[in-house]
Design a protein that fits this description.
Structural class: mainly alpha
Distance between the termini: 58 Å
Strand order of the largest sheet: 1-2
Helix content: 55-70%
Order of helices and strands: HHHHHHHHHHEEHH
Radius of gyration: 21 Å
Amino acid sequence: MKLLAALLLAAQPTDAPPVPSALTPYLVDGEVPAGDYRWLRGRFPGATLAEVEAFRAADHFRGACELWSKAVVKTNLAALGAKVVVLDGFYAVPKRCQQFVQPGIGPDVSWPAFTTALDKDRPYALGVLRGVTLAEDQVLEKGSLADQLSTRTVGDQALRFGWVESGKREGATADYSPLERAIYDGIITRAVTARDQANTAWLAKIVTAQGWPKRSKVGQDAANAAWLLAQHADNDPAFQLKALRLMTPLVAQKEVDPQQVAMLTDRVELKLSGKQRYGTQWTCKAGKRMPQPLTQDEAATDRLRKAAGMDSIAQNAARMDEL
């Protein structure tokens, strides 16, 4: 028993890496405020030695933070008997790491060009974030469990719509250059991650105390909301796996929608194996929309989809193209 305890202790990931002292001037209440990229100055020519040191510290911290995060994920999944094969591309790192993720800008961009684009972007992006926060303040943690589940999706969906719709209506909402779009997307996606993680932590406590929210207990809308929160809990694959194991037997009792189990199954299996069973998760390669890698051929996948009450992969692709 002592040997087993020692082995388990040795297998635990180390504590989260601390934010380097060189980055302290950029922190407010322990983290970088949304839309504040001053720490990025050291990436560009003309930076001071202190700015270069801060940028290098931020880049090193982000990498160390992501390695630590993945170690935690693998340990938590191993405790559930699951082996991780793939995480990259299917896993959302914690907001602690994401605060030092660089926007997707090219090496030819100058600091003056970056700050000019940021000054244009930031009011729009922060306006979206502020509006979502004000809306959430009116509804979160209020009412019954069903009410709280339903309102937990307010920020989840508002931030995603604020990101997607601005891109779909480029010019009508804001005429962004590629540089401006990259900065705007960086601010919004970081907020999406933070909201998802707060929702995951909240739902995990509810599920631990009360079990999975059933249709008969919370109603269809709240049950849908519970699934959506689990579907977007990509920073915590172990919780997604727990949720899936709780939801799956409830399908036979008509307490959970089989399509939702199928979609969460794919979300989990992509993290574990890099492949999906039902073909619900899609990507775009060389300008063509296609599902992420499948465990079986398309015909076999379509049979599974039909059993879960979904249309075929081809019909799904056509619908997405229309949207």
